[in-house]
Structures are given as structure tokens and as C-alpha cells.
């Protein structure tokens, strides 16, 4: 792998994105919506494909369709007569199909599975700002999120707007998926939202420790995957997910003792 791909900016942004994914994933697991990350990440694929076709930054296209998709899911959850799972399934399939059709063939593998990429100072600054937005928003809203999760009626009586809180969380969730897209691609970007909290939940049920462990597992998975991919010349996304899955298997063993 080229040395520029393992430059400090790339590594620092990878760690920041992973930590954001671990924190966001912890709250998503408590809300029971981690699988929504799969849908949201696939919604990004058409935007990435269009961006590549018209030669502008793929993350701009991905961000546009991601945020739109998050709002759609939030509205569907409130108003649709269909089961949410049914609508999610339709959106999932349609996004993947459209994305695969509009993404240029030579760029499809990178869009789906991620890759080592050059990170400019501007991209680094934006990525760090987005990571800080994710972590900061969840920190500020943590009490409202937990109260609404465990006692929606009590949260409502003290003035917590559940619908607005859900939209805020889905915006944060979509931002997290966007960060993971840089490294893992559209197919695997939800992995660092789903697997690290699953590992952390096996090890503790204390909320604060759970969130911290989820962030730590995500960061270790990202760094381990980067090292594995760079040393073996493997695709980056699958390598990161393989390390995360290995940690999950270890947590199963540890949990049995």
C-alpha cells in the first residue's frame, strides 16, 4: 500500500470515525435499531454513484441521499400503514439496485467495500467535525435518549419531544454511517455500528462502560483492519469487519466463563 494512504490524517480520521460509530451504535443497540444502519448505508449508494458519474465528491452525493433516507425512515415510522420492516426492506432493495446501476463499473467495488484513500486537510477537518458532532450530540442528549428509551411516558410528562428526539438521533445515525462510508464502503459501513456494541454488551450492562467499550472495540477494529489490509493487500472494509467479528467471537468465549 502506498505510504500516503497510511498518512497520519488518514489514521486519525479513521480512529475518529470508528469511535463515533461505536458510540452511535451503542445507543442504536439500546433503541433496537442497529439494523437500520444497513438500510441507511445502502441509501447512500445511489448518491455515490451519481456523484462519480458527474465527477463531484462521492461523499457529497452519499450525504444527500443518506440524510434524505433518514428522514424518510423517521416519517415512515410515524405515518405508514405498512409495517416498518416491510418499508425498510423495499428501500434496502431499491437503493442497492439503483446504486449498482448508476455507479460506474470501475468504481463499484470501492463504493461497495471501501478502500485506502488520500485524505486532504479539508476532508480531515470536515470528518473530525462530523465525528465531534456525533459524539457531542449524543453526550448532550444522553439523558433524554435514555429516559425516552426506558420510560417514554415519563419522558413525555417532563417535556421531552419524542418525535423530535428520534429525528435528531436518526440525523446523528446517518452522519455516523457517512463517516464509515469513507473506509468501509456502502455494503459494510454499518458493521462498526452493529458489531462493537454487541461485543460491549457481552462484557457489561453498565450504560457508561458499555458506551465506552463499544467505542474502544470500534477503534481497535478499525486499526486492526487497516494493519491487516495494508500488510496483506486486502480490501479495507472486509478486513476491518473481519477483525471486529474476531473480537465478537472472543467476547462470546469470555462471556461463557
Entry summary:
This protein has twelve helices and no strands. By secondary structure, it is mainly alpha-helical.
Characterization of this structure:
The protein is mostly helical. It has one domain (3-250): ABC transporter involved in vitamin B12 uptake, BtuC (Orthogonal Bundle), CATH 1.10.3470. The protein contains 12 helices and no strands. The longest helix has 27 residues, at 162-188. The N and C termini lie far apart (40 Å). The mean pLDDT is 79.
Notable traits:
mainly alpha, globular, 257 residues
For the secondary structure, the number of strands is 0
What class, by secondary structure content?
Answer: mainly alpha
What pattern of helices and strands is seen along the backbone? HHHHHHHHHHHH
Q: Kindly report the CATH topology.
A: ABC transporter involved in vitamin B12 uptake, BtuC
Q: Calculate the terminal CA-CA distance, rounded to whole Å.
A: 40 Å
The amount of beta strand, in percent, is: under 5%
Tally the structural domains. Answer: 1
Query: What share of the residues lie within helices?
Result: over 70%
Q: Sketch the major β-sheet.
A: none
Mean pLDDT: 79
Write the CATH homologous superfamily: ABC transporter involved in vitamin B12 uptake, BtuC
Question: Which parts are unreliable, with pLDDT below 50 for 5 consecutive residues or more?
Answer: none
The dominant shape is globular
**CATH class category name:** Mainly Alpha
CATH architecture title: Orthogonal Bundle
Give the count of helical stretches: 12
Amino acid at each position: 500500500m502506498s505510504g500516503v494512504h497510511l498518512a497520519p490524517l488518514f489514521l486519525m480520521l479513521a480512529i475518529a470515525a470508528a469511535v463515533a460509530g461505536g458510540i452511535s451504535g451503542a445507543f442504536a443497540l439500546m433503541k433496537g435499531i442497529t439494523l437500520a444502519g444497513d438500510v441507511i448505508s445502502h441509501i447512500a449508494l445511489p448518491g455515490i454513484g451519481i456523484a462519480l458519474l458527474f465527477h463531484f465528491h462521492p461523499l457529497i452525493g452519499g450525504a444527500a441521499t443518506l440524510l434524505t433516507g433518514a428522514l424518510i425512515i423517521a416519517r415512515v415510522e410515524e405515518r405508514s400503514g405498512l409495517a416498518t420492516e416491510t418499508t425498510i426492506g423495499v428501500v434496502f432493495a431499491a437503493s442497492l439496485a439503483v446504486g449498482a446501476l448508476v455507479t460506474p463499473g470501475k468504481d463499484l467495488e470501492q463504493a461497495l467495500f471501501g478502500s485506502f484513500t488520500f485524505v486532504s486537510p479539508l476532508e480531515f477537518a470536515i470528518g473530525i467535525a462530523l465525528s465531534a458532532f456525533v459524539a457531542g450530540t449524543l453526550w448532550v442528549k444522553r439523558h433524554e435518549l435514555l429516559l425516552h428509551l426506558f420510560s417514554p411516558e415519563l419522558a413525555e410528562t417532563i417535556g421531552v419531544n419524542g418525535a423530535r428526539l428520534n429525528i435528531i438521533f436518526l440525523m446523528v445515525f446517518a452522519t455516523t454511517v457517512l463517516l464509515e462510508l469513507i473506509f468501509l464502503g456502502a455494503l459494510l459501513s454499518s458493521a462498526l455500528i452493529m458489531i462493537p456494541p454487541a461485543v460491549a454488551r457481552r462484557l457489561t450492562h453498565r450504560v457508561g462502560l458499555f458506551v465506552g467499550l463499544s467505542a474502544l472495540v470500534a477503534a481497535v477494529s478499525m486499526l486492526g483492519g487497516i494493519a491487516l489490509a495494508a500488510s496483506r493487500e486486502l480490501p479495507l472494509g472486509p478486513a476491518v469487519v473481519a477483525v471486529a467479528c474476531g473480537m465478537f467471537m472472543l467476547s462470546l468465549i469470555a462471556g461463557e466463563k
